[in-house]
Write a structure and sequence with these properties.
This protein has 10 helices and 13 strands. It is an alpha/beta fold. It folds into 2 domains: about 220 residues, 3-Layer(aba) Sandwich (Rossmann fold); about 45 residues. α3 crosses α4. The radius of gyration is 24 Å and the shape is globular. Pfam families: ABC_tran.
Length: about 290
C-alpha cells in the first residue's frame, strides 16, 4: 500500500474582493511506503498547500488525498502522520518537556510512554540541555529542532515535513538528514518539501518538482544522478602539446574521437559528464516559466 496517494488535486484560494489564486492544478502523486520523497519547487509553487491538504488542515477544491489508503482528513490518517509545519511556533511560556507532554496526550499516549519518548526525541535532536527551559528563550534553530522532535514523538509511520532544514546551521542540517536516513532504515516514509536540491540529492529516493501549482517532473534520484549522461570529457594531448580536454555531447563522441585519433591525439581518459540536481531543477522550472510566457 502507498503511504500517500494524491489524485488530481486542485486548490484555488479566494482572497479579498473575490481575487482568485490558483495554487494547485490537477496534481497526481503517489509515494510508496518506505520511500524518502523530496518535494521540490520554487517559492509559491504550491508545496505548503499540498502539505496542508495532506495533513487535513485545508480541503481541496477538487481531487482526493489519501494516507495509507484512508482519507487524509480522517483521524486514522492523522494518527499515522508526524507533521512539521513550515514555521513551527509553540506556546512560548512552556518548556520543551511540557510541550511534548501536551503533544503526547493529544496522540493518546500514556504518561510513561510520553516521558520515555520525550527523552528519546529530545536527545535525538540534541535538545536535552534545553528541555526544562521556556521555549521563548530558544534560538530559531532550536525551535525548528523542537518542531521535528514533536513530529517524531508518537513514532508515526509517515513524516510530512515542510522545509525541515529551514533555519538550521550546517550541523543542524546534517543532524536532520541523519534522522531522515535512520527513519528510512526503520521502514518509515518521509515526504519533505524544500527548495534545496543538495538535501534531496543526499537523502531522497525520488523527487517531484512542482512549479506554478503543477507537477513538472517526477524522477528517481539515482537514475537522475547516475544514469543520465549529458556528455563526455575527453582528456589527452596532441603531439608536442600540453594536456588538453574537450567536452562533447554523447552524439558527437564517436566522430570526435575518430577525428582526434587521426590527428594523433593521445587519449588518456574519457569521463562521462552527468547533470546535477540543481541544473535539473533550474532547467525544469525554467521550462515551466518559458511555457507560461
Ligand atoms: N491562504 C492563502 N490565501 C491566498 N493565497 C494563498 C494562501 N496560501 C497560499 N496562497 C498562494 O498559493 C500559492 C501557493 O502557495 P504555497 O504556500 O502553497 O507555496 P509554496 O510552494 O509552499 O511556497 P514557499 O516555498 O514560498 O513556502 C501562492 O501563490 C500563494 O501566494
Amino acid at each position: 500500500m502507498n503511504a500517500i496517494d494524491i489524485e488530481r488535486l486542485c486548490k484555488t484560494y479566494r482572497g479579498k474582493r473575490g481575487a482568485r489564486v490558483v495554487a494547485l492544478t490537477d496534481l497526481t502523486l503517489h509515494v510508496a511506503a518506505g520511500e524518502v520523497f523530496g518535494f521540490l519547487g520554487p517559492n509559491g509553487a504550491g508545496k505548503s498547500t499540498t502539505i496542508k491538504i495532506l495533513t487535513g488542515q485545508i480541503r481541496p477544491g477538487a481531487g482526493d488525498a489519501k494516507i495509507f489508503g484512508v482519507p487524509a482528513v480522517s483521524p486514522e490518517a492523522r494518527g499515522r502522520v508526524g507533521y512539521l509545519p513550515e514555521n513551527p511556533s509553540f506556546f512560548h511560556f512552556m518548556t520543551a518537556l511540557e510541550y511534548l507532554d501536551l503533544v503526547g496526550r493529544v496522540y493518546g499516549m500514556n504518561k510513561q510512554d510520553i516521558r520515555r519518548e520525550s527523552e528519546r526525541v529530545l536527545s535525538l535532536l540534541e535538545l536535552e540541555q534545553a528541555a526544562r527551559r521556556p521555549i521563548r528563550g530558544y534560538s530559531k534553530g532550536m525551535v525548528q529542532r523542537l518542531g521535528l522532535a514533536q513530529a517524531l514523538l508518537h513514532d508515526p509511520d509517515l513524516y510530512i515535513l515542510d522545509e525541515p532544514m529551514s533555519g538550521l546551521d550546517p550541523v543542524g542540517r546534517a543532524l536532520v538528514k541523519k534522522i531522515i536516513r535512520e527513519l528510512k532504515k526503520k521502514g518509515k516514509t518521509v515526504f519533505f518539501s524544500t527548495h534545496i536540491t543538495a538535501d534531496v540529492e543526499e537523502v531522497c529516493d525520488r523527487l517531484a518538482v512542482l512549479a506554478g501549482g503543477r507537477l513538472r517532473a517526477l524522477e528517481s534520484v539515482d537514475s537522475l544522478l547516475h544514469e543520465r549522461i549529458e556528455g563526455y570529457r575527453i582528456h589527452g594531448s596532441s603531439p608536442g602539446d600540453e594536456h588538453s580536454q574537450r567536452l562533447v555531447s554523447p552524439s558527437e563522441l564517436k566522430t570526435t574521437l575518430e577525428t582526434l585519433l587521426q590527428a594523433d591525439f593521445q587519449v588518456e581518459r574519457i569521463e562521462p559528464v552527468r547533470q546535477n540536481l540543481e541544473d535539473f531543477f533550474l532547467e525544469t522550472i525554467r521550462g515551466d516559466s518559458d511555457a507560461n510566457k
